[in-house]
Amino acid sequence: NKRSGVEAMKITVVGTGYVGLVSGVCYAELGHSVICVDKDPLKVATLQNGEIPIYEPGLQELSVRNAELGRLRFTSSLGDSVKGADLIVIAVGTPPLPGGQANLAYIELAAQEIADAMEGRPVVAIKSTVPVGTNEKVRELIRERTDCPFDSVSLPEFLREGSAVSDTMHPDRIVIGTDSPRAEALLRELHAGLGCAFVVTDIRSAEMIKYASNAFLATKISFINEIANICEKVGADVTRVAEGMGRDKRIGASFLKAGIGYGGSCFPKDTQALIQIAGHVDYEFKLLRSVVEVNQDQRFNVIRKLETIFGGELSGRTVAVWGLAFKPDTDDVREAPAQEIIGELLARGVEVRAYDPIAMDNFRSQFGSGDGSVVWCGSALEAAAGSDAVCLLTEWSEFGETDLQRLRAVVREPVLIDGRNAFDEAALQGTDFIYYSVGRPSLA
Ligand code: NAD
Asked: ipTM of the assembly?
């Protein structure tokens, strides 16, 4: 039961979504004995069958392998799974409430169920992104229900969907927020094999690190998007500007890709939540408010560009939408810009032909497949067939590699709006495509 000299731990992960499942599978890969619990029986049945309910490269192989080795189990019975655990990791969702605050109902429910079942002296870590002070509240909530001793840890997660396994196995740092040396030691041991830096802090600072990190990354994106908007007007090329900036180590090259803005289940909700957290202590986070506003507006540049090309009137036009996921290599469509862009196109009387390599089903179920005005297509070229414009909203690599001659042969009008700067401009020169990207000179 030992691997790399580290004693195998019994770990229960509560909530088997993007974060819980990846963490659980990776803990098993590190040699620990892991039970992943989820309330959703369908999800659990899928996992027990060796399938993965989400699209995440490399995850299925690892999951199946560790299940076969007897180190990884899936269950919907939280009570049984918690008994005897050395470490209980809460990774349930914290979706936004209508006002922007994080909804802590799932966290509280999970904490109650854990309190009613736990025994021994487990470490209880919250991996979900939660407002500052939540770990302490959860600690109180558990203490009210049980005399069983336990140690609390804030263990924020920084994985990116699409590269979640690699991010978890090769993290930049592990943040451990705790006031318990025993818990700190256990979590250092758990992650020892990863060879990464540890940042050990008090609980509140760890909770804040997560929000501050996401808010900072969102700020970089909105910043470069505003630079891109200015580049379009002054005739500069934002990709060269970003390269020139990014080579400065103080700035760094990542998150300087101009486009139609961020989406997904984290940045939109975590920025809103941090604005709320600040508001609760009478602090107006002006910078972050602007970041959110810029991001919200940026996606509509696609519509504005279409209007410029078609003289302001879009009604009756047919537009192909390439990409529905909020970013490539994931099937996650939560807060994807495509939702609002398609909604706006439909409201203007456009016929939308949509395609995504992986996220079609998720998008249809969220967007409402009953809406007859969207034609769901089986390939990028099928979506483009007969269209007056193709709008690229997610930079799946297959889109940038499109054979432009074949594309030209199927479209009605050669118009390409590239919301992610996925196309090589040089390849478009010499064609008759009208090409608008973000922050780069357009070809008309
Ligand atoms: P998710 O919605 O994919 O998964 C949450 C899972 O928890 C669901 O499967 C749900 O059925 C389950 N669940 C809810 N209550 C439960 C309970 N009482 N017992 C058992 N299972 C329960 O969410 P996610 O994307 O994995 O995010 C989880 C948390 O991690 C959030 O706070 C999120 O902000 C944070 N986070 C997410 C990412 C990401 O890229 N998705 C990255 C870093 C942090």
From this structure: 0.99
